[in-house]
Amino acid sequence: MDEKLKKYDYLIVGSGLFGSTFAYRAKQEGKTCLVIDKRPHLGGNLYCENIEGINVHKYGAHIFHTSNKKVWDFVNSIVEFNRYTNSPVANYKGRLFNLPFNMNTFYQMWNVTTPEQAIAKIEEQKREAATRLAGREPQNLEEQALLLVGKDIYERLIKGYTEKQWGRACTDLPAFIIRRLPVRLVFDNNYFNDKYQGIPIGGYNKLIAGLLEGIETKTGVDFFENKEYWMGIAEKIVFTGKIDQFYDYRFGKLEYRTVRFEEEIIDNPNFQGNAVVNYTEREVPYTRIIEHKHFEMFGQEVYDCPKTVISKEYSTEWKAGMEPYYPVNDDKNTALYQKYKLLADKEPNVIFGGRLAEYKYYDMAPVIEKALKDAENC
Ligand code: FAD
Ligand code: UDP
Predict the structure, then answer these.
(1) What is the value of pTM for the model shown?
(2) Residue with the nearest Cα to atom 46 of ligand 1?
(3) pLDDT (tens digit, 9 = 90+) per residue, 241-268?
(4) Taking the CA of residue 303 as centre, how many other CA atoms within 13 Å lie in the half-sphere pointing to its CB?
């Protein structure tokens, strides 16, 4: 297509958080954008469907958290956020424990009431593992968990959950995964250490609608069904789909973990009293149950809405045709991604961004940060 016939400054493939944030900034800079998405709706994995007056997170529970004030101010300039604080509960064989691992958990596990007693108990619990390691760095998740919190917590709250989530033995998983969880000697059930946290008031669709206001969008359109046409329609492409697919899988397919959701509407205003309950024993086939109303309804609001919607999450290996969720950042996939990245780095007119195009486990706040940065010189 002749340069002059290019209709837009940017074609943005994917209306998830990366594509929508980029489009917002580009529009502010006076650029014309078209956003296309193959799904029947906008918003990518943030998309919520309103069921019985409740915003149901259709692609898994999303909790916004960040310590970056610029990102927090940015999202709040689009939509106001509520005060939701994630404090999941673990259910192990019918007994409940607070998460992340904190004084409440230690009390529930061992009846200890002071930090000093908790430290003594953890020391006793991890002695065997520490002796076995003899000063060597933990090589896998099991060794790391035993060294962090000892055997009772590992066996009851970590082992079963982790093996279900990742479909691999804890001895075959990297140690760093478990270091993401805080261990605290205070009575604090806040799952995150970040300064800011919440859910958009009115749901995530409001955030996406705010970002894409006044921008042309088309849903139900797969870029690969007419790649040549779409490549010619704009001066530049922002691509947020799968990077291996962009290159026709020429070096092979990148792997993912995926999640299957079983959703139920229940005739009871309050099913489990919390948004997130993890089922940490191996024998329960799902990893957790999400009760969506608790993200946005507090106090009497919970009862003013007579029904509730829950989702059971089953973590499974990804196969072609399934929704790709978590990149598997092992050596094999990382090496494969690097090969695609070398090609991507040489594309003069394509920006690859977001969790599928960068093959990266990305929380929402860093995605926004990266999209704003990439859009700086647009
Ligand atoms: P996506 O949301 O995947 O958007 C990509 C878009 O591109 C999709 O809409 C897709 O349909 C479209 N697309 C792909 N290929 C094509 C094509 N060929 N043609 C047209 N369109 C195409 N982050 C947090 O901060 N807190 C959380 O609590 C949290 N929970 C999560 C839970 C789960 C189960 C998952 C999977 C992720 C979670 N995240 C969470 C991460 C969050 O989802 C991501 O940071 C965010 O969605 C990334 O946005 P994105 O635009 O990169 O990707
Ligand atoms: N984890 C666990 N028990 C829980 C919650 C988490 O063992 O009840 C482990 C699990 O291995 C998980 C890791 O801690 O992958 C990090 O937790 P996070 O909530 O960050 O999970 P992710 O973001 O990977 O889903």
Answers:
(1) 0.95
(2) 364
(3) 999 999 999 999 999 989 999 999 999 9
(4) 2
